[in-house]
Design a protein that fits this description.
- The chain has a domain at 4-124 and 235-378: Thiolase/Chalcone synthase (Peroxisomal Thiolase, Chain A, domain 1, 3-Layer(aba) Sandwich).
- It is 35% helix and 21% strand.
- The protein has twelve helices and twelve strands.
- The chain has helices at 26-41, 66-73, 91-105, 133-136, 144-154, 159-179, 212-215, 248-254, 279-290, 308-317, 330-333, 337-355; strands at 4-11, 15-16, 50-54, 82-85, 110-118, 189-193, 196-200, 237-247, 260-269, 299-302, 359-366, 370-378.
- The strands form two sheets. Strands 1, 2, 3, 4, 5, 8, 9, 10, 11 and 12 form a ten-stranded mixed beta sheet that branches. The chain has a two-stranded antiparallel ribbon with strand order 6-7.
- Helix 1 crosses helix 2.
- The two termini are 18 Å apart.
- Belongs to the thiolase-like superfamily. Thiolase family.
- One of its GO terms (molecular function) is acetyl-CoA C-acyltransferase activity.
- Residues 256-378 form the Thiolase C-terminal domain.
């Protein structure tokens, strides 16, 4: 059986809503990360067999198969096909898993998996209509924030716990930025903003002065007496990231050094009302598939859709908190939905390398009641 390896991974700095990328088209952002990944890895682009891109809100400039449009804009050979897929928040993690599956099956040898979302220009939900009665008769369809509230209640997570976890995210992300830990994974980019050229080099949403006291003053976002606020939720963001995968045999043939291998991939459905609990059973299942335990994993990237999601997950899995999102997460860095899976994988790869660790596990909840997971082993 073929072995799928990761040769390179890069991301753009994440922009906040109405921030530095608000005047920049999504196709340009995606084309720049594709071009940057090819140049950084020094791969001959004619070796690429496919480009798979996760994108949630596929309308207007993010529609019409943005993957193919951006691949052409990146001046990749026209013979390279490209496809866009949507598994909600796990879209670009699904792209990574699908690329790995294709390589392991022997269908393809070199694939770029990427993600894109400019949520400023394409607000979440603008690609859908109201749920049909055939669905609402079966399930109570509620907003994700209300699901996060119910998770906080079920797992007995206090407002203080949620806010303290959120502060931790900002502090770790700021520390990683200040120390230069993010510098290897970030590709700087030039964009136009307010009539001037701006070079973006770091994530825009981190609030280094965030404190639990400040967060405690925020009003609940989804119910009058709720615990979920804008401060302990992921930020609406703009961004893109890309990962270069290939077979280990092809990497050797091209003289490229693999940095990690994909050893397990999985996806699961969960209660569409609670919606965000899928990472709990999926983590247990993928660990069993890989023949590993929670203690074997050196770094976890559990997406911070809302603080209640990773906190409930930690209550059930009991990992050492120092291993979880060691450079902060979506609460601080932002959650450009279609791009987040590739962003998390990019960060996870660099964390394993910088910490000289072996196993990394990435898991994400997805809208509608799903979750995606991947385990990699650093080489």
């Amino acid at each position: 059986m073929n072995e799928a390896v990761i040769v390179d991974a890069l991301r753009l700095p994440v922009g906040r809503r109405k921030g530095v990328y608000s005047e920049t088209r999504s196709e340009y952002l995606l084309s720049e990360i594709l071009k940057g990944l090819v140049n950084h890895s020094e791969i001959d682009p004619t070796e690429i067999n496919d480009v798979i891109v996760g994108c949630v809100t596929q309308n207007e400039e993010q529609g019409n198969n943005i993957a193919r449009i951006s691949a052409l804009m990146a001046e990749l050979p026209e013979e390279i096909p490209a496809t866009s897929l949507n598994r909600k928040c796990g879209s670009s993690q699904q792209a990574i898993n699908q690329a790995a599956q294709s390589i392991i099956a022997g269908d393809q040898e070199v694939v770029i998996a990427a993600g894109i979302e400019n949520m400023t220009r394409h607000p979440l939900g603008t690609d859908r209509v109201d749920s049909p009665s055939e669905l609402t008769d079966l399930y109570e369809m509620i907003p994700q924030g209300e699901s996060a509230e119910r998770i906080a209640e079920k797992w007995e997570l206090s407002r203080d716990q949620l806010d303290e976890f959120s502060v931790r995210s900002h502090q770790l992300a700021e520390k990683a930025t200040r120390s230069g830990a993010f510098s290897r994974e970030i590709l700087p980019i030039d964009v136009e903003k307010d009539g001037a050229k701006v070079t973006v080099t770091k994530d825009e949403g981190i609030r280094p002065n965030s404190t639990a006291e400040k967060l405690s003053t925020l009003s609940p976002a989804f119910s009058a007496n709720g615990r979920i606020t804008a401060g302990n939720s992921s930020q609406i963001s703009d961004g893109t990231a890309a990962v270069l995968l290939m077979s280990s045999k092809k990497a050797e043939e091209l003289g490229l050094k693999p940095r990690a291998k994909v050893i397990a991939r999985d996806v699961i459905g969960s209660d569409p009302t609670m919606m965000l609990t899928g990472p709990i059973p999926l983590t247990k299942r993928i660990l069993k598939t890989a023949g590993l335990s929670v203690q074997d994993i050196d770094v976890f990237e559990c997406n911070e859709a809302f603080a209640s999601v990773p906190l409930a997950w930690m209550k059930e899995l009991n990992p050492y908190i120092e291993k979880v999102n060691p450079r902060g997460g979506a609460i601080a860095l932002g959650h450009p939905t279609g791009a987040s899976g590739a962003r998390l994988m990019t960060t996870l790869l660099h964390e394993l390398e910088d910490m000289d660790k072996r196993y990394g596990l990435q898991v994400m909840c997805c809208g509608g009641g799903m979750a995606t997971a991947t385990i990699i082993e650093r080489i």
